[in-house]
Amino acid sequence: MPGFFVQNFGCRATQADGAALERQLASLGLRPSDSELEADVVVLNTCTVTAAADQDARAAIRRIHRENPEARIIVTGCYAQRAPQEVASLPGVAWVVGNSHKHQIASIAAASFLQEDRRWDGVSLNQPSAENTFSPNFVSLEAIALSAPAFTLVADIFAHTELIAAPVFSGDSIAEKTRPNLKVQDGCDNRCSFCIIPSVRGQSRSMKLDRVIAEANALVGAGYREIVLSGINLGRWGRDLQPQERFEQLVRALLEHTNIQKIRISSVEPMDWSDDLIALVAGSPRVAKHAHVPLQSGSDRILRRMHRKYRPWHYAEKIRKIHEAMPEAAIGADVMTGFPGETDELFEESRSFIEHLPFTYLHVFTYSSRPGTPSAAMPDQIPVQVARERNCILRELAAEKNLAFRRRFLGKALEVITLQTDGEEWTEALSDNYLKVRVEGRHAANQILTAEITEVTDEGLAAVAQQQIAATAV
């Protein structure tokens, strides 16, 4: 039986896309392989948010082709959507399938083995179902199979209405197996001047509420205790549905119609942290006390050049509301250094803004020019070395803030979910408020415990378990 392997690059949304591809490939009769070196078909689900992400994908393609030259490599995802001809020119690439047609990759793979490769004569693959076949307006499965190698299938992403996603039931790390992410939204209607994602992901699209609940209940049935809600612009969930809904309605419905023990919200833009959402997160013990609120810059001038939809004062007001409602919550942000026009003075404005807000961690990125974005053509591009130096300054500030946050919990009890054991002495865990915790003793993964914090370590906290917390029926 032909074997497949899906390798994902980038964000949680990409991981969820990859899980859906695995589910589709298996449903058509292909066999999951343990690695890309053993597979007959390898799907690379790429990212293109930075130049480094493109480079990682190219390196993976070259390595797989070198070490498994018989494998058929299908490249999909954001890099494939943005630069299909560039990807198709790489040795070993059999097909390039953009996000516009990602939902049809399983049919491509199955068709190639059914119609082209005589090594699999006599093997009965499941025939593609109607929902997994190509529209005749595009191309037939036979044409796909017979046109390899280097077939490219990329169309206008803004005409794309599909949303493929599946809960990530497994992954490369134990943490993924313990805390699956459930993608409920894709695409973005914002037009930030530095961001290529709308061009490769398309318009905002939401998973319907009944399907979200069904997927969440499937995760509960599989034994998971915490799920992570994810999306490209998660806070916009429901705006495209008829009738229109709001993200807080989704969270409330999950609390009412599932008995998942913990819901974690991955990242929501500041405009979408409504008073209702803040109150819902603060008021429910089943929602993790964790708010990730992308910032990008604390300089008003830079935010305007970025085409962000808020001003520093507006952002600060949201953060203070979250902190007042949940004083012990993790509050994090994405921050960029080296955006075109970021002078020393404007960087200091941003640094000072960040310093005076109650962040507990930061994800700091160095600006990466993306072809086709407005910022790529802007004057006053910042030297990479300068941007990296500023990156280090903000990382040091973030480390100081995180250490101060961790110290607040010495001697206190935190709710944690166990991830994996570290030998016989410790079990790695993650707290409700997003702190790494090493719990003394060997505990099974995927358990929610109350843990007493006994020590502040270099990267997290050490604790002893007090009790296991059982699930509560809805």
Task: Write up this protein.
With 474 residues, the chain is of the alpha/beta class. It has three domains: 3-156, Rossmann fold, CATH 3.40.50.12160; 174-407, tm_1862 like domain (pyruvate-formate lyase- activating enzyme, Alpha-Beta Horseshoe), CATH 3.80.30; 413-468, OB fold (Dihydrolipoamide Acetyltransferase, E2P), CATH 2.40.50. Helix content is 34%, strand content 21%. The chain has 15 helices and 18 strands. The protein has helices at residues 12-27, 51-67, 78-82, 84-88, 105-115, 141-147, 174-178, 197-201, 209-221, 247-257, 275-283, 300-306, 312-325, 344-355, 384-407, and strands at residues 3-8, 31-32, 41-46, 72-77, 93-97, 151-153, 181-186, 205-206, 226-231, 262-265, 290-292, 330-337, 361-366, 413-422, 426-431, 436-440, 448-456, 461-468. The strands form four sheets. The chain has a six-stranded parallel beta sheet, with helices on both faces. A five-stranded mixed barrel has the order 14-15-16-18-17. A hairpin with a 3-residue loop joins strand 14 (413-422) and strand 15 (426-431). Helix 9 crosses helix 10 (247-257). The radius of gyration is 23 Å and the shape is globular. The two termini are 43 Å apart. 47% of the residues are buried.
